[in-house]
Amino acid sequence: MRTVPYLRLLLLLALLASFAGLIVWLIQSFLDLYYATRYHPILGGLLIGVLVLLLLVFLAASIYYLFLFRPAPKTERLPRPAPPATPAEKWEAARRNLAQLEAQMAQIQDQVARAALAERSARLAQQLAQPQLKVVVFGTGSAGKTSLVNALLGRRVGAVGATLGTTQAVAVYDWDLPGIPHPVQIVDCPGILEIGPAGAMREEEAQAQAQAADLLLVVVDGDLRRSEVDPLRRLIALGKRALLVLNKIDRYTPEERRLLLQRLRERVYPLIQPEDVLPAAAAPAPVQVGSQTWQPEPEVAVVRDRVQAVLYAEGGSLALDNALLQSQQLGEEAKRIIQAQLRRQAEEVIDRFQWIVTGVVFANPIPALDLLAIAAINAQMVVELGSLYGCKMNLQQGRELALSLAKTLAGLGLVEGALQLTTGLLATVAEVSVVGFLATAPIQAASAGYLTRIAGKSFIEYFQRNQSWGEGGMQAVVKAQVESAQKSGWLKEFVRQASERVFRLR
Ligand SMILES: Nc1nc2c(ncn2[C@@H]2O[C@H](COP(=O)(O)OP(=O)(O)OP(=O)(O)O)[C@@H](O)[C@H]2O)c(=O)[nH]1
Ligand SMILES: [Mg+2]
After folding, report:
1. Which residues surround ligand 2, an ion (CB under 5 A)?
2. Which uninterrupted H or E stretch holds 171?
3. Least C-beta-crowded within 10 Å: which of 141, 206, 367, 406?
4. 146, pLDDT greater than 80
């Protein structure tokens, strides 16, 4: 691919050479003409004018050309690690994720969360060592999921009912499928898209099972609705392999069946390939023949055969893909727990400093709010917040950061804003006269506490982003924190508490 710039350079040189030749020829021609017409006052001048104009056009064209081919500004791109491709790489990646998870778990203080993660991690390690294939039966209520599980297993394991929500909890059964080198389990789920809080909780459980599946059997008993395609799309996006089962085909004539299957195949393509959309009659309705009722046998052989073929051919790689996905999800969950824990600890630090600042300013009131004094105390807060987020800094560095934030607060007019806000709030919350000199100390102290909180919250953002203020810079972060503090109504509660605890006004 490196030949392209050279080709372009050669082309440019050739063009320039021909241009230069053309110009020399033009000048020569004009000179000839000029000598021929030099005794004619108007014609001679006109020729010089045309020559100058041509030169200018050439110059402009060259500049434009160079501008066109100016190299595009380089966008900063982080090198992305290539996703693992071979089974060995996938296995290694999953192992690495589990090892990282150990380190993450050591940071988690919440015993319950840590124990839950440890259990899932141990199960995943076991799964990596000895894969077990999980076929999850998923779909809307009453589509015949439990009936399908019963028919595939050849025994009645789960209750079947005409009403929605017959299956209330996930049920896992061993499935003895000949020819598959790994043990297989089939999982019956509650239905999705049921209304009410209980239905939503059951759906959550079903979704969790589907996310952990090696192979999904999505059961429908008619055409697919959009609301059914969306969850399917999300699962396929996660890398899930799915078969779609059109159940209750005994209710349709052969022609209707054919048309319905065709429509389903079109609807789910390319999420699911046409050969993976299969007909079934898991619990066909009894048929009245004359005076006798005849109970047809379930028709699920097509489904069983396809599951067997897919698990035989792809089982190992499906299990590996799934283990890799689970390990990534576990890592992300651990990260979320650690972030939330960090945030809580950081909030405690801010809380402590906001009261220290409020107390100090209240005890030493001076006519104007002293941002320098506040920044000096905030320096220690910055150091403590930094150390929480793994960024060691000394007090001097903390002071510099606190000072630059104090300048931003002042630049944004937030000091005046804070004084006004607290004045109003003190007047309502603590019924303090706003004109009296006595009110100066509480107003300044509450404002200082408020600004300390804004500063602290801004620093959390800074440390969370690996010591960067992001695209909008420090100002944007500070503004966002002011907005969120205003929305939450935090300041009013703070002024109320300060009036009681520090100012003793109530
Ligand atoms: N005609 C016909 N009815 C069926 C078939 N399969 C299931 N049914 C009926 O459909 C109803 C629902 O069946 P279930 O197996 O309980 O459905 P489910 O999807 O497990 O339902 P939930 O657990 O409530 O989500 C029952 O009345 C079954 O008898 C079939 O192949 N043909
Ligand atoms: Mg059921």
Report:
1. 145-146, 166-167
2. strand 171-175
3. 367
4. yes
Residue 78 has pLDDT above 60, yes or no: no
- Looking at the CA of 141, name the nearest ligand: 1
Cβ 189 under 6 angstroms from ligand 1: no
* C-alpha to C-alpha distance for 70 and 63, rounded to whole angstroms: 10
Ligand 1, atom 10, lies closest to the CA of 144
DSSP state of 288: E
Q: Are strands 133-139 and 184-188 parallel, antiparallel or unpaired?
A: parallel
CA distances from 413 to 416, 425, 447, 457 (A): 6, 19, 13, 18
Cβ contacts of 417-426, under 8 Å, gap ≥ 24: 417/482, 418/369, 418/447, 418/450, 418/451, 419/369, 419/443, 419/444, 419/447, 421/447, 421/450, 421/491, 422/446, 422/447, 422/450, 422/491, 422/495, 425/491, 425/492, 425/495, 426/495, 426/499, 426/505
- Predicted local distance difference test score (pLDDT) of residue 497: 92
Say yes or no to pLDDT of 364 above 90. Answer: no
DSSP-derived pairing of the beta strands 277-279 and 171-175: unpaired
Summarize the confidence of residues 81-93 as an average pLDDT: 81
Angle, CA of 349, 350 and 351, to the nearest 5°: 90
Q: What whole-number distance in Å separates Cα of residue 271 and Cα of residue 230? A: 11
- Find out whether 235 and 217 touch, Cβ atoms under 8 Å: no
Check: CB of residue 231 under 8 Å from CB of residue 153: no
For residue 90, give the 3-state DSSP assignment: helix
Pocket flag, ligand 1, residue 143 (CB < 6 Å): yes
Pairwise pLDDT comparison (16 vs 381), residue with the higher score? 381
Three-state SS letters, 94-118: HHHHHHHHHHHHHHCCCHHHHHHHH
Ligand 1 atom nearest residue 139's Cα: 19
Q: CA dist 341 to 107, 291, 408, Å?
A: 9, 71, 29
Between CA 231 and CA 241 the distance in angstroms is 13
pLDDT > 60? residue 4: no
How much of the chain, in percent, has pLDDT values that exceed 70? 90
Is the minimum distance from the CB of 146 to ligand 1 under 6 angstroms?
Answer: yes
What per-residue confidence (pLDDT) applies to 163?
Answer: 85
Question: Is 145 a pocket residue for ligand 1 (Cβ < 6 Å)?
Answer: yes
